# Entry
Amino acid sequence: MKEEKLNDLPDNVQNIYSKYEKNGWNGNFNGQTLGTTAGIKFKNSDNQLPKVDSKANPITYREFDVNNKIVGQVRDAERLIRGSELYKQLLPNIHKIN
# Structure
């Protein structure tokens, strides 16, 4: 996985990150459409992200949609993933930010 800095991410992702940050990462922020997901558990079922930190403590992840859900369509795949371990990684269409 390639490590990324927030400033290296696309402008739209930086903008959304800023809005979640201002909201304290407490779910959806004002202006998001119905069905846009923010703060649910990210299962990491494909094991692309570590399950434990350097001290063997379990890492939990939450996902936040980058784009608003469009009525009549499924959610797209672009997400911010926040973990309990401090590092930044970029996955295809999934931005791992903490």
In short: The chain is about 10% helix and 20% strand. The CA atoms of residues 8 and 14 lie 9 Å apart. Strands lie at 38-41, 61-65, 79-83, 89-91, 94-96.
